[in-house]
Amino acid sequence: MTDIPQPQPPGTPVALPFPTEGTLPERMGMEVLEIGPQRTVGRMPVAGNTQPYGLLHGGASAALAETVASVAAAAHAGADRIAVGVDLNATHHRAVREGWVTAVATPLSLGRSVASYEVVVQDDEGRRVCTARLTCALRDRPPGA
């Protein structure tokens, strides 16, 4: 496991401290822009992540929210531990048809065994698209992981 990447200029994707090849975030075009236990930011294109009506799929917003909050929880947990999502809820506020959505995860509670984050997903105009909450269990890293 490598160290958590240092902040980059705004809008510059950062390398994640774990493999992402072949994962859902890679397939959905997600980019993580900032990583930290107090704030993690990621984004994803609307194109390719829509429902049949051309609107951003609610499950895509939920996947983005879970991704950024899990990365934040992993940063809180530390290199010798892992974060595993155990509860996710999301409320969808408005439709998006184009552009990008950006998610910002901030902590609600950071403990030794559990971390909970609020995630606000916004469109390119800064309008709230979705509000989510993720709770992660923090566990010791299994051998070989």
Automatic annotation (TrEMBL):
Residues 53-130 form the Thioesterase domain. It comes from the Bacteria. Residues 1-12 have a biased composition (Pro residues). The keyword Hydrolase applies. Belongs to the thioesterase PaaI family. PANTHER family: 1,4-DIHYDROXY-2-NAPHTHOYL-COA THIOESTERASE 1. This is Uncharacterized domain 1-containing protein. It comes from Ornithinimicrobium cerasi.
